[in-house]
Each structure stands twice: as C-alpha cells, then as structure tokens.
Specification:
Chain A is mainly alpha-helical and about 160 residues long. Chain A has 5 helices and no strands. The termini of chain B are far apart. Classes of the chains: A mainly alpha (about 160), B mainly alpha (about 180).
C-alpha cells in the first residue's frame, strides 16, 4: 500500500488487528464449520442443503481471514486445496449422474443404484448435497481471496 | 388472515432498510442497510414457511454478499460528499413509482398465504411430490427431494454456475490461482 503509515485513511485499511475479534473467531470457528456440515448433511431431513451449508463453511474461512488478515488465511487454505475441493465436488455430481446411466438408468436416476445398495437414493442425495457444498464453499472462499487481492495490475497486491 | 404484529414490524423494517440502501449517500452505510434488509427478508421467509429459502437468504444475502461488498468498498476510493442522502432523480422516481404501481395492481390477484385452493397447491406436480417424494427418494424434506432428485439436472446446472463464477473471476482478474 502506497501510504503505509499511521495516516492511513480508515476506508483504505482492509485489516485491523483486534484481540477481541481474533479470540472470538478462534472460539466460534469450530462451531460454525460444524453447523455448516450439519446443514449440508442434514439437508435431506431438515431445511438446508449443499448450497446453504457450503456458504456457511466458506464463511468460516472468510471469518478467519477477517480476524487474522487475508495473508495468513491464504497460507492456511492453499489454492490447490480450493481447486481440488471445487473440482472434486463438480466431478462427484457428474459421476453420480453418469453412474446411473452405466447401471442402465437415466442420467441422475438414483433408483438405478437401488440393486447395489438399499436406500441408495437417500445416500446419493446426501452425496450430491456434499458435492454441491464442496463447490460452493471453495468458490466462496476463492471469490473472497480473489476480491481481496484484486486485479493483477493493481497497486494493492498484498495488503495484509 | 391479518399478519402477525411481528410480521408488520419486520415488513416496516425491511421497507425502511430497502429505502435506506437506495438513498444513503455513504456506500458503507448503504451496504449495511442492504445487509439488514436481507436479514429481515430471511426472517420473513421463515414466517412464509420457507425455511430453506430463509437459510439461503441469511447465509448468502446477509452474510457472504455483505462481506464481498465490504471488500469491494475497501478496495475502492470514494469521496465523501458530506450529504447523508443521495439526490433523487425525477426520472428514476417515476420509473420506480410506475413499477410499484404495477406490482400493487397485480398483488390482489395473488392467492392468500396458505390458501388450500391456491394453484400451486392444487397443481398435479405439487401433489405428486408431496405424495411420493419420500417413497421414491427416501428423504423427508420434500424441498431437498425436488432439488436433488426430481430436478437434479437443474441443480447440476446451478452447481455448474457457481463453479463457473470462480473461473470467471480468474479470467476477469487475469490470474491463474484463486488465492
């Protein structure tokens, strides 16, 4: 940042270190990620699902980024991890669909898995929800990191 | 059916927040008003018996969108003008007024909330989902059954859209890594 000093304008300072925020985030982060996973897993029987749960899990990483700065959060969640999680989610969803065709059904026809495993439909819906959650969580975190860094020619390459 | 007092309070709150988000001069204040609006709407969804939508609204609308907006504001410079409210252009006001007028005209035609004769309830597809979704998919939340099973292909498309968003950001920012 060009005016890195004490006269930094308040709107330019993306990160302010605060013991209260860091302690709070450290305390509630495990609960947030647990709740996110619960919403994802339990989406079949209660309100929720992959989209909502994925956002909550992604919000956990964003919270860490807000409390500890974007750079430490970047160190913690690597690009390879984000890409792997998002693509695994997308490929799992497609694989579930194509698997049904391999078993003689139509695309995403869960019932065709039924001879392999009882209640296959229920478990595959859970799997698909998890896949959606993986995509959404990784993309939310990726959008956050990308926006925090900005364009490649930007003067504010690394602020935190 | 007259609305519950809490619903009326929420509606007034949501309306005030929406007007605030549109009129406040300070971008930060407008973003916060928008977040409050989104949170109010998410509670209203729960009142309307749509907890799935409410959860999405709270997580995406009030949560992540606010954070992304705040980041964008922190990244851009803005000049304080000293005014509290944006000056309103007459043309925009007429356009918004006309839109609200059209909506107000259509509103009486919408069936009451929970009306058993409402087309969406009496429609064959709805009845089919409610009657057969547990038998056919094994999940008790009919919303999830429709989302992941009956409309699975649409949901795959939705997930692809989310995936594409990350790719689009990489293209726009001219980068090869997300972090």
């Amino acid at each position: 940042m060009s005016d890195a000093g004490q006269s930094r304008p308040p709107e330019g300072a993306a990160y302010v270190e605060s013991t209260i925020i860091m302690t709070t985030v450290r305390l509630i982060a495990p609960f947030v990620i647990t709740y996110g996973l619960f919403v994802m897993f339990h989406g079949a029987d209660s309100p929720g699902g992959g989209f909502q749960g994925g956002v909550i899990v992604g919000a956990m990483v964003v919270m860490v980024g807000f409390a500890f700065g974007v750079a430490p959060a970047r160190e913690w969640v690597k690009n390879d991890v984000l890409v792997a999680v998002a693509t695994t989610g997308a490929l799992t969803f497609v694989a579930v669909g194509l698997g049904a065709q391999l078993l003689g059904g139509r695309f995403l026809e869960y019932a065709s898995y039924e001879p392999l495993y009882h209640h296959a439909s229920k478990y595959l819906i859970e799997l698909v929800e998890l896949a959606i959650g993986a995509i959404v969580a990784a993309v939310v975190v990726g959008l956050y990191f990308s926006l925090a860094r900005g364009h490649v020619g930007s003067t504010e390459e690394d602020e935190a | 059916m007259s609305p519950a007092p809490l619903e009326v309070v929420l509606l007034v709150f949501v309306l005030a927040c929406a007007v605030g988000a549109a009129l406040l001069e300070d971008v930060l204040a407008a973003i916060l008003a928008f977040a409050a609006y989104s949170l109010g709407i998410s509670v209203l969804w729960v009142f309307l018996q749509a907890p799935d939508v409410g959860l999405t609204e709270a997580a995406v609308g009030a949560g992540i969108m606010t954070i992304l907006f705040l980041l964008a504001v922190a990244k851009t410079a803005r000049e304080p003008s000293g005014r509290t409210l944006e000056s309103v252009r007459w043309r925009s006001l007429v356009l918004v007024g006309a839109f609200v007028g059209v909506l107000a005209l259509v509103l009486p035609a919408v069936p009451a909330i929970g009306d058993p004769a409402a087309p969406v309830l009496s429609y064959d597809v709805t009845q089919y989902y409610l009657a057969n979704s547990y038998e056919e998919t094994g999940v008790t939340n009919a919303v999830t059954a429709v989302l992941a099973a009956y409309r699975g292909l649409d949901t795959l498309g939705e997930a692809t859209v989310v995936f594409t968003a990350a790719v689009a950001v990489l293209v726009v920012f001219d980068r090869e890594v997300l972090t």
